[in-house]
Design a protein that fits this description.
The complex is a heterodimer of chains A (108) and B (117).
Chain A lengths: L3 E4 L2 E4 L5 E7 L8 E6 L6 E5 L3 E2 L7 E6 L2 E6 L9 E6 L11 E5 L1
Parallel strand pairs in A: 2-10
Antiparallel strand pairs in A: 1-3, 3-8, 4-5, 4-9, 5-6, 7-8, 9-10
Chain B lengths: L2 E5 L2 E3 L5 E8 L7 E7 L5 E7 L3 E3 L7 E6 L4 E6 L8 E9 H4 L1 E5 L3 E5 L2
Parallel strand pairs in B: 2-11
Antiparallel strand pairs in B: 1-3, 3-8, 4-5, 4-9, 5-6, 7-8, 9-10, 9-11
The chains are: A mainly beta (108), B mainly beta (117).
């Protein structure tokens, strides 16, 4: 099983700042089959990034994904108030299609 | 309108069974992989099962949960048996598209299952 470890668990920032979220895999996620999701309270998750670096339809360009193999990053430039939420990474190269434990992005 | 709608959640006693259903609309259902993902109260996302070229299950539900689909009705079901307190969660169905119809691109709104006596 591929274990995904996200860091930090909680990130406290102010609107307008830059957020950098990390997702580390216990083994290589080949073909960069890794996604990032955003979840707000009481809502279903929403796809942000697929294939490690491709933005999903309708996602603002302040969201970007990067990385390969075992180290992946979600970057949010110029945080907007609506960006404060929980973020999850997920690998979809190999079953079980595991998620990271999540990073909570909170307003400082 | 492209959407997934789950139903069937509720309160069930430990050891009992429950069947969840997901109805898809607005897209060609039979070409897509489908997932069930759950989220215990206040916890993170946990992948449960996938129906694609093969069916696969998380170890935590293997032997107790079974997925099935009816392409003529655009439905994707999760039959849950021998339910435990730790199965209490919101259950989401999700569509697999990216990476050979595995990577999730669409989620339903979820249905809550509470396992309690």
């Amino acid at each position: 099983e591929i274990v995904l470890t996200q860091s930090p668990d909680t990130l406290s920032l102010s609107p307008g700042e830059r957020a950098t979220l990390s997702c580390r895999a216990s083994q290589s996620v080949s073909s960069n089959l890794l996604a990032w999701f955003q979840q707000k309270p009481g809502q279903a998750p929403r796809l942000l990034i697929y294939g490690a670096s491709s933005r999903a339809s309708g996602i603002p360009d302040r969201f970007s994904g990067s990385g390969s193999a075992t180290d992946f990053t979600l970057t949010i430039t110029r945080l907007e108030p609506e960006d404060f939420a929980v973020y999850y990474c997920q690998q979809y190269i190999k079953s079980p299609f595991t998620f990271g434990q999540g990073t909570k992005l909170e307003i400082k | 309108q492209v959407q997934l709608v789950e139903s069937g959640g509720g309160v069930v006693q430990p050891g009992k069974s429950l069947r969840l259903s997901c109805v898809a609309s607005g897209f060609t259902f039979n070409i897509f992989g489908m997932h069930w993902v759950r989220q215990a109260p206040g916890k993170g996302l946990e992948w449960v099962a996938f129906d694609g070229r093969e069916k696969s299950y998380a170890d935590s539900v293997k032997g107790r949960f079974v997925i099935s689909r009816d392409n003529s009705k655009n439905t994707f079901d999760l039959q849950m048996s021998s339910l435990r307190a730790e199965d209490t969660a919101v259950y989401y169905c999700a569509r697999g598209y990216y990476g050979d119809f595995v990577g999730i691109d669409l989620w339903g709104q979820g249905t809550l299952v509470t396992v309690s006596s």
